[in-house]
Amino acid sequence: MWNSFPYDEWSETVTDFWTFGGANSTGTYVMTVLGCILMVGSLIGFVWLEKQKLDRQAETLRAAGAFDAPAPLSPPPPPAA
Amino acid sequence: MLSSLFSLLAQEAPTIEELKKQIDLDSLVLLEVFYYFTVVIMWLIHVGFMAYEAGVSRRKNFMSTAMKNILTIAVVTPTFYYFGWYIYGCMEEGWPKSGHDSPDAVPGFCGLTAPWGSGMGPNMESNLTGHLSLVFFLAFLLFSWTTASIMSGALIERVRLSAFLLLGTVLGSVVWIMDAAWGWSGGGWLTTRYGFHDSIASLVVHGVAGAFTLGVLLNLGPRVGKYDVLGRARSFRPHNTHMTLMGLMLIFTGFYGFYAACLFIQSTVFPGWVNIYFSPTTLGAIAMCITVGFAGGFTGGWFASKGDPFWTLSGGLAGVISVSAGADVYHPSLAYLLSFSGGLLAVWVGNYIERSLRIDDAVGAVAVHGFCGFYGVFLVGIFAGGYPTGINNIPVSFGGQLMGMLAFLPLAFLPGYILSWILKKLNLLRVPPEVELEGLDLAEFGRDFYPEFERVPEVILTPDGDEVDAAGVLLDAYRSTNGKPTTRVEA
User: Fold this and answer.
1) Strand pairing of B235-236 and B459-461?
2) Number of compact structural domains in chain A
3) Per the domain annotation, does B375 fall within a domain?
4) Residue of B118, B166, B443 with shortest CB distance to A54
5) Do B71 and A20 lie within an 8 Å CB cutoff?
6) What is the pTM assigned to this prediction?
7) Number of folded domains in chain B?
8) DSSP assignment letter at B129
9) Dihedral pair phi/psi, residue B343, rounded to 5°
10) ipTM computed for the complex
11) Considering the domain boundaries, does residue A2 fall inside one?
């Protein structure tokens, strides 16, 4: 059954392309380019995602006034006459 | 089973050619297995760096500190694969190419280092391309992780994870491997012209990583609250000193793999062990040197710091780094004396950097790795002058060692300074001060990683030695920055 699957016709060609059958083949160049795209994309992704997280958290903390200086104490009201 | 035995006995005696072929194969398999296991042992260096730095950090920054070390592997591995290894293989003559011939370069090595080349895949046709070049690659990759990990500890608790990863990529996949091509290879221009000798990578790994780190620290600035208004240093309390000490011991264990990976043996080509320049040495010599180096370094660190546990262990590291450059040739007694001096100096330089230069290096990386890395190469110029380096036996000289130092200082410092300056201008270098005060773990991961332990107030050690509640000190420092990321010393 498995041998009748149409994939069998292409399998050798596909394997030649994607596995390390031979160096300096089209497949190795294509894989290198795809890997480089993932490498660069992940570096950009690390920067972008972290920036979102940090900016959001900093904004939340600022809005909550978490680290603001306490308001100066108002002078006590004068004693009633 | 009996029939198998009879069939073996029935075989004709092998010919001399067959035996020679078998010995060649055994020799290559031995080398491949040897490098494979150095890589396994060197993983402990990264386990150690992670534990060491995470222990030094405050509780609120624990996981973000550890994550830096883990993700170093995620970014330095592909970048080193796609271009770092190619730099090592193809830029021994300099960059841009100097036109200087490298007669000692391994023929064809450059072509094996391209990511699409035959040296980077499971190629069964050739032992060199299919077996050895891959384990060499892995050993060098582990060195690359180490350079990034050296920097990582110095920047903790205020650097953005992504900024660290970008910096680590440049350090691990460009800077250090460029200097390795120049001065840590048989055909490097520093080796073939000047006899530059740094056999176990005092400068090419440690010194360069330290100089790069110094450039970054100048732009990154100190942690909020590190210095008071008079510029005197406060000390943050590590949240887990046990973890830090265990981490350092793991680094030391991994160093034995690091040292071994700096040597090469193939009995059918060389008569015995050779160093990275193909000059003869022995595995025993470097194992002796590293062990004695730890002993001298611990002793120096203990005396210089008056028994401080952190600096005693860091002194051990400093001691080993100080003798690594000449570990293939030093007498153990010389290594003991020199590593003692390295342990002493690392503590003094570390304190000078923190207190006088007011640079907040959280783990003393610039002193331990940077200073002692340069110091180690300097010592070789004094104590091993005339020793023949490389295949063409260029003698080691003080001038040659100095040339290496002068080449590597700007090669390391400038990229670190310039890249961190650019990141700073883009506001991508440092976390917002509010996040720094609250702790990076809550911003990055949304939780505290010790949920079963009660939170106790954070304390800080004042310059006068008093332990006080950190909240007031940190809030005052934050308010003095007006809520802006800062590199001001008094912040």
Assistant:
1) antiparallel
2) 1
3) yes
4) B443
5) no
6) 0.90
7) 1
8) I
9) -60, -40
10) 0.85
11) no
